[in-house]
Amino acid sequence: xxxxxxxxxxxxxxxxxxxxxDLLHGTTAEMFSVVQCLAxxxxxxxxxxxxxxxxxxxxxxxxxxxxxxxxxxxxxxFFYTLANSPLHILFNFFPPFNRKLVPYVQPxxxxxxxEFFQGGKILDIGCGSGMTAHFWGPxxxxxxxxxxxxxxxxxxxxxARSVLTLKGIPSFKYLTDIPxxxxxxxxxxxxxxxHVHSPSEYFNFIKTRLxxxxxxxxxxxxxxxxxxxxxxxxxxxxxxxxxFKKQDIYNxxxxxNFNIIKFQTFSYPGMYVFSAGISPKMAKAFTxxxxxxxxxxSQKLFSRLDTFEMGNDMLFVLRKIP
Length: 322
Hints:
It contains 11 helices and 11 strands. By secondary structure, the protein is an alpha/beta fold. Helix 4 links the parallel strand 4 and strand 5. The chain is globular, with a radius of gyration of 19 Å.
């Protein structure tokens, strides 16, 4: 375990916000503290596992490290389409399937890689096995992107890199392993920036290895979102070393000379159901059972909250300032 100063401003003064153990994966009974920097407001784990220790806190079957078969990807796509279509009401009459569709109810947000890509090279940092992507599923994976782009991966998990290699996707364990002559048109960190030990190191790498007209796509949990306002303890620790709010990413963007050209927050019902299962505070705030019809109705309410930037996840698209 190591004590650290604030990654953004170097401040050493902080206050404790949350103290808890690993409620999500149950890999340890150790207690950890989320603190807030008194100078810039950044929230981070302190003390925290070192770079060489953090691996032992990842469960062996951490979902995004695993290979996803073509069959599983097809099943995911089928249930996603069904859960978000008017046909979902038919499953109110089939209780065994009713609640199983709830995790597939999501807002329709275009994959920003497909929205902004205009050719060239894509680097995905923290992509797992590259067979699926959180929220965007198989269509947002490196394997899917490889059909129209040159794709590269940074992934620390050995098992996941083995899958990437088998699929013919060049992969590296560390940023420093990437050949220095390669520049990228898009660099994506899809729910991975919160896992790294130094966001500043990654922003500096992105600044130096992104082409002049290139884009950065960052998705992270929103620590200013409704779930975290209701239950600040509802965090994935110790795997998440940082807990960002909107202003934090704006601060990093300004420091490393990026403009933010797109920003939005979003939520989905499955996260509330899941959070109620691991957080005592969320369990008190969220007590009613949810089936597919309730999930679709709730999604409409959550989408309205997103207009006030209270969604529980954030999407940023950044461009270099010339």
